[in-house]
Design brief:
single chain, mainly alpha, two-stranded antiparallel sheet, globular
Length: about 180
């Protein structure tokens, strides 16, 4: 009887993990498309973007003489799901490995922006992206404590992530089709 119960629980966990992995892969593709390829849209401010900024929170963030907190916040927010997914999928990793993952994914995105001349390699972005991953990891830990059960927390997150993924895909599609109120030209 215990073997049967174990097998049923294991099958349920495998289905749950497969959904989480699919959502994670979709998130990574969207992240790359948004950060590196800039939604495949040529923004009016894009000229020669092959530059490097190694001074954190420097002039690259100054807009009209003030720090542009909006960009810093958005850089953190876009990496929050990475922290949540890392909490679920890499539960055996220690926190240092997870933070290294956030840093490396951000570093790769910034490097591709530079290599493809689609954006500025900016250390501030790496800092804010990594911070966003850490915030996402903390959010996951909080959800896990609220549910007092890892599997229930993962189910809840998968439901939210599925809804969020569908909304994101619809919004990105509408943006690409120029059907939103947001204009990039």
């Amino acid at each position: 009887m215990n073997l049967q119960k174990y097998w049923i629980n294991n099958m349920r966990d495998n289905k749950l993990n497969k959904l989480t992995i699919v959502l994670f892969v979709i998130y990574l593709i969207a992240l790359f498309w948004i950060i590196v390829l800039k939604l495949s849209v040529h923004f009016s401010y894009m000229g020669n973007m092959r530059r490097i900024n190694l001074i954190p929170f420097s002039e690259s963030l100054i807009l009209n003489g003030k720090l542009d907190f909006g960009e810093m916040i958005m850089n953190a927010v876009i990496f929050v799901p990475l922290g949540v997914y890392a909490g679920i999928l890499f539960k055996r990793w220690n926190i240092g490995k997870k933070i290294l993952l956030f840093f490396l994914i951000s570093l790769i995105c910034e490097a591709f922006q530079f290599i493809l001349a689609l954006g500025v390699f900016d250390i501030t972005d790496i800092i804010n992206n990594t911070l966003g991953g850490i915030i996402g990891l903390m959010i996951y830990k909080g959800i896990e404590k609220v549910f007092k059960n890892r599997v229930k927390a993962q189910k809840f997150i998968n439901i939210l992530a599925t809804i969020g993924t569908i909304v994101m895909i619809v919004l990105l599609f509408l943006l690409k089709m120029d059907k939103l109120w947001i204009r990039y030209r």
